[in-house]
Automatic annotation (TrEMBL):
InterPro entries assigned to the protein according to its UniProt record, in alphabetical order: PfkB_dom, Ribokinase-like
Domain Carbohydrate kinase PfkB residues, every copy: 19-314
GO cellular component: cytosol
Keyword terms of this UniProt record: Kinase, Transferase
Lineage: Bacteria, Bacillati, Bacillota, Bacilli, Bacillales
Listed name of the protein: Carbohydrate kinase family protein
GO MF: kinase activity
Superkingdom in the source lineage: Bacteria
Pfam families: PfkB
């Protein structure tokens, strides 16, 4: 019987630079502090899951460079006994990201060097040796080789997900938020072979051609169901989840769920780096444990909220029991009717 969760694809070393405000072009701003952290889906989700449940086996599958950044990331992952690094390979240059954290409004902007992530392809995962029940691959639009066209399946990513499902492995995907027009061509092929699609409102809207925010940034709640249904129609087999700062919305093919975010005073928020990956980790853990979608979304909400209490992506993540208490005891934002 398969057990555990595999996280494959993008890894990065993050340098979090806190600034008073993000500058306009040609303007200068002061960096108040610099902090190094793990980043990218493989490290963020793997460590989050390892902290949620110390007995859960997490298989981390990625490329690291034989450089100082790669050694740092390896040492961080190797700190957790339940993270399996047997499918980690050393090649090329380690990706890194400058995370510019605006101290005023807590937003963050990413400047990334893709490095060896462009080399990660359909042969980078030994599916036969994989022991996990769920395989999460991220991020679509950031893994160049997997985003390449495949004449039969649409993309190389879709082909890889199909092979995993044929071996009885549940699949999960995430997408990177980029400005561009690639979504509607690159994302849908993978949805046909995805069990769990957990993405934010920008990525969801771009993937189906329906914006979920207006020009002022207001959430267009009347279109959320349309997006959930459309993503499911494109082939997602089990759960579609769209998360936003205000809450999250899920569809399991029968019921639609709306879960408000926890209400956290802005003064208590140290950073938002990795909140999306923390949310994904909560959903994946719930799916692995056999929770229903509603329960999994509540856990994911608490997981994402806990990550906000620290500047980096994973230091704030709590274990399962603490996350349940956090969700039960913390005030919630107003319910979002959709």
């Amino acid at each position: 019987m398969r057990k555990g969760i595999a996280i494959a694809g993008t890894i990065s070393l993050d340098e979090i630079k806190a600034v008073d405000c993000y500058p306009d072009k040609s303007e200068l701003t002061t960096i108040n502090s610099v902090r190094r952290s793990i980043g990218g889906a493989v490290s963020n989700c793997s460590v989050a899951l390892a902290k949620i449940d110390r007995n859960l086996v997490v298989e981390a599958i990625t490329y690291l460079g034989n450089d100082e950044k790669g050694k740092y990331l390896y040492e961080c992952l190797n700190t957790y006994p339940n993270i399996d690094l047997k499918q980690l390979k050393i090649i090329g240059e380690t990706p890194f990201t400058d995370v510019i954290q605006d101290k005023h409004d807590k937003t963050r902007t990413f400047l990334t060097f893709r490095g060896n992530s462009s080399l990660f392809n359909e042969n980078s995962i030994d599916l036969i040796k994989l022991k996990s029940k769920i395989l999460h691959i991220a991020y679509i639009l950031l893994l160049d080789s997997l985003d390449e066209e495949d004449l039969e399946y649409g993309t190389k990513m879709a082909k890889l997900l199909k092979k995993a499902q044929e071996l009885g492995i549940k699949t999960s995907i995430d997408i990177v938020s980029e400005s561009g027009i690639r979504y509607e061509k690159t994302v849908p092929p993978s949805l046909k072979y995805t069990n769990y699609c957990v993405i934010n409102e920008y990525e969801a809207g771009k993937s189906v051609g329906i914006n979920l925010r207006d020009r002022s940034g207001k959430l267009l709640t009347g279109d959320i169901k349309k997006v959930l249904y459309k993503l499911k129609e494109l082939g997602v087999k089990d759960w579609v989840v769209v998360h936003v700062p205000e809450g999250s919305f899920g569809y399991d093919g029968k019921n639609v769920y709306s879960i408000p975010s926890l209400f956290i005073e802005i003064e208590s928020i140290k950073g938002t780096v990795g909140a999306g990956d923390a949310y994904v980790a909560g959903i994946l853990y719930g799916a692995h444990k056999g929770f229903n979608l509603n329960e999994s979304m509540k856990l994911a909400t608490a997981s994402a909220a806990s990550s906000l209490f620290e500047e980096d992506s994973t230091s704030g993540i709590k274990n399962y029991e603490e996350l349940v208490l956090l969700y039960d005891n913390y005030p919630k934002r107003e319910d979002i009717k959709i």
